[in-house]
Design goal:
Elements: E1 6-7, E2 15-16, E3 32-34, E4 39-41, H1 42-51, H2 69-88, H3 90-96, E5 100-104, E6 110-114, H4 124-127, H5 139-159, H6 161-182, H7 192-208, H8 214-229, H9 235-254, H10 260-287
Length: 288
C-alpha cells in the first residue's frame, strides 16, 4: 500500500511522506535535517542546539560573541563624561566628584557638602569613578583608559561579562569607601580605584592559572609607587580598589565547582556590603 501523503507543516502547498522523528510533524525536503535516525525538522534541531551546555569562561561565565564588550562600554562612558566636562567645566567635577565635609555658616549652623549632605548625594561614590581631570594634555584619562584596555580586556575574557562588570563596579565602590574613610574632604575623581581592583584580580588569576606573575607584579609595584610619590594622586582610592578587587577575585578564582555561583556572587555581595558600611561609618564621623 502506498504511503499517504500529507502537507508539510511549514509549507502547506507541498506534500510529503516524511515526518520529524522528534515531533512527528510532516516535513518537506527543505525542512529536513539529517539525524542519526531519520530526519528532524528545523525547529527541533534548533531547540536541541539551544539546550546544549554553552562553553564557559575560566570563572564559569558565559562565553560572549564579543568578549570585551563591557570594557569597550566602560571606556566609552569615561570618554563621554570627559567630553561633557570639557563642555560644562568644573561644574561637573563638583557635581559628580567624591568628597564629604561639614562646617558652620555665619549663623553657626552646621553645613554639610558632598556625600555628607545626605542620601541624595550618595551617587558620588560611583559617579566619581567616571570623572577625570581636565588638564591638558589629558594624561589622567589617557593613562586610565589605556590601563583599562590592557588589563580589563583580557580579564573580561577570563571572567565573562557579568562577573567582570561586578568586579569593576564593586572595586570602584571599595576605592570610594577608602577615600571617605581616610581623606573625605578631598574631591576625589577617576577610574583608578576600579582599575587597581582589576590589577589585583589579574594577579590572583595569574596565580590561579600558574602564569608567570613577574610582569603584572612589576606593573602593580610601579603603580603603587606612583600612587604614593606623585602629588594629586589618591593613594587611598587606589588602595581601597586594590583590596576590594583582590578579595572578589579570590572568591571568583577559588570557588568550589559544586557551589561556584553561590560563592562567587556571595563574595561580590560581601565586599559590596563592606564598602557601603565603611562609607556610612566614614560619613557618620564627618557629620558628628
Amino acid at each position: 500500500m502506498d504511503q499517504q501523503l500529507v502537507s508539510c507543516y511549514r509549507h502547506p502547498d507541498r506534500e510529503t511522506g516524511i515526518s520529524c522523528t522528534r515531533c512527528d510533524r510532516p516535513i518537506c525536503p527543505e525542512c529536513m535535517v539529517n539525524a542519526s535516525v531519520g530526519f528532524q525538522c528545523r525547529e527541533c534541531v534548533g531547540r536541541e542546539a539551544r539546550a546544549r551546555v554553552q562553553p564557559r569562561t575560566v570563572a564559569g561565565g558565559t562565553v560572549a560573541a564579543d568578549p570585551v564588550l563591557i570594557t569597550k562600554i566602560l571606556i566609552g562612558l569615561n570618554i563621554a563624561v570627559f567630553l561633557l566636562e570639557l563642555r560644562l567645566g568644573d561644574r561637573l567635577l563638583r557635581d559628580l566628584g567624591l568628597y564629604a565635609a561639614c562646617g558652620t555658616d555665619v549663623t553657626g549652623q552646621q553645613v554639610c557638602v558632598g556625600v555628607a549632605h545626605g542620601p541624595d548625594d550618595w551617587y558620588r561614590v560611583l559617579t566619581s569613578a567616571f570623572v577625570h581631570e581636565r588638564a591638558f594634555p589629558p594624561a589622567h584619562i589617557l593613562f586610565n583608559m589605556l590601563s583599562l584596555w590592557w588589563i580589563g580586556a583580557p580579564l573580561e575574557r577570563l571572567l565573562g561579562r557579568s562577573r567582570y562588570l561586578a568586579l569593576y563596579l564593586v572595586s570602584a565602590l571599595a576605592g570610594s569607601a577608602a577615600v571617605l574613610l581616610l581623606a573625605p574632604d578631598v574631591n576625589t575623581i577617576g577610574a583608578s580605584g576600579a582599575i587597581f581592583g582589576l590589577f589585583g584580580a589579574t594577579a590572583i588569576f595569574m596565580r590561579r592559572l600558574r602564569y608567570d606573575m613577574r610582569p603584572i607584579l612589576a606593573l602593580l609595584v610601579l603603580n603603587i609607587i606612583f600612587s604614593f610619590t606623585w602629588s594629586g594622586i589618591s593613594w587611598q582610592g587606589h588602595a581601597g580598589g586594590l583590596i576590594g578587587g583582590t578579595l572578589i577575585a579570590v572568591g571568583l578564582a577559588y570557588a568550589p565547582r559544586d557551589r561556584r555561583t553561590l560563592v562567587q556572587w556571595g563574595t561580590c555581595a560581601a565586599v559590596l556590603v563592606a564598602s557601603v558600611v565603611v562609607s556610612a561609618i566614614a560619613v557618620a564621623q564627618v557629620t558628628s
